[in-house]
Amino acid sequence: MPSIPDSLKQHRVRSADPAGVIGGTVRYAPLKSLWFSGMAGAALIGGIATFSWTAFALFLAATAFVLLFGHSLGSHRKLIHNSFQCPKWLEYTLVYCGVQVGLAGPLGLLRQHELRDYAQRMPDCHDYLRHGRSFWRDGWWQIHCDLALDTPPAIHLEPAIENNRFYRFLERTWMLQQLPPALALYAIGGWSFVVWGVCARITAGIFGHWLIGYFAHNHGPMHSEVYGAAVQGHNIRFVSLLTMGECWHNNHHAYPGSACLGLYAGEWDPGWWTLLVLRRTGLAWDLRLPHQLQHRPELRKLDTLQHSPCIAPPLMGTIST
């Protein structure tokens, strides 16, 4: 039986059986599928019928805003990894923006992420969790289906998160949270603004999240390797601005608790830049960096590149050649 890496002993996901993330069945998820298909259909049909350059500019701005402040900062770097600290009102605002991406509620998204992260760091895991099938099969699975593991591991969220009344409210109503911006946009610009500012934005968020996730686990350069892990992260160049820095996924697999993802020269990270601005204004502090994280003996360096000057040298081994 494969052993559990020491770095996973304090993980939110716990299981006495490492094989618990291997066996399972991928099943069609009607609500999940209908949510995306409905938004995509409305975006395609309504987008053609109501197109204007103003509405398209709104789509670009709204998508960029929720991806930066919601998905990257609120959902990922704050709620999931707690890689920086900020006032509670700002945390709630960022997480609410994360709900606007349209992927899931905050607690559901957190559980999905933790299960996938745990599974990928094990010696083996189900193809659904590793993006291990063909491009089109993986797209169908991730956007329209769910995975039912035969013996799912337990996911233990901190009481401060799991019992948080605001997060529980968003978890129950995350789909309905699209109504406030939809009403505001209708009042400002009519149905064109609703279609492009809500439906097209959600479609791009869901589809883009899968698309980047697929390539980030299958193709692209690597600075580091997590030895013994079922899945390695890959960096995807040329989309750093589109993903707000989330494309540096090999860096993230190496240092999941780092607030900075673009760790090497030339790796643009708009999420990190925004955190630096927030820190300068006193709205963010304790931004964690790789050298402040727990030593991981399974982490191996694959090249001789050095971190950018603002990042202290990490603790890691070196693969012998």
From TrEMBL:
Q: Where are the transmembrane segments?
A: 35-68, 183-212
- Report any one BP term from Gene Ontology: fatty acid biosynthetic process
Q: Recite the UniProt keywords alphabetically.
A: Fatty acid biosynthesis, Fatty acid metabolism, Iron, Lipid biosynthesis, Lipid metabolism, Membrane, Oxidoreductase, Transmembrane, Transmembrane helix
GO function term, MF aspect, one? oxidoreductase activity, acting on paired donors, with oxidation of a pair of donors resulting in the reduction of molecular oxygen to two molecules of water
Query: Where is the Fatty acid desaturase domain positioned along the sequence?
Result: 52-257
CDD domains given in the database record: Delta9-FADS-like (cd03505)
Q: What InterPro entries is this protein classified in?
A: Acyl-CoA_DS (IPR015876), FA_desaturase_dom (IPR005804)
Where it sits in the cell: the answer is:
Membrane
How is it placed in the membrane, per its record? Multi-pass membrane protein
- Tell me a GO cellular component: membrane
Pfam families per record = FA_desaturase
| Source superkingdom | Bacteria
What the record says about family reads: Belongs to the fatty acid desaturase type 2 family.
Q: What is this protein called?
A: Acyl-CoA desaturase
